[in-house]
Amino acid sequence: MSEVQAERQAVMQAVSTLQQLERLIRSQHGEVRNLSSEVRRVAGSTSTKADDRMVNALQASSVSLDALQQRIAAAMRQAEDIARRL
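Given the sequence above, the corresponding structure tokens read:
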């Protein structure tokens, strides 16, 4: 295997790892959204400050997961571009 082929294979392995991370993040993001909805549903109109803090924390987690997912997608596109150029 030539050095270029080895580099391309390494980049494609990185893409595969990023895809796995993206699936994991997507799954976790869904869980956070479901949990946030469940907390809101259970708390209803009688929500406490603790309930509100929990919902706010879950919303912040959701925003962080969104940002992470976007960064992973960008890294994946860059790695795929590098692999194509090799």
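Residues 11 and 82 are 7 Å apart (CA to CA). Try to locate this feature in the token string yourself.
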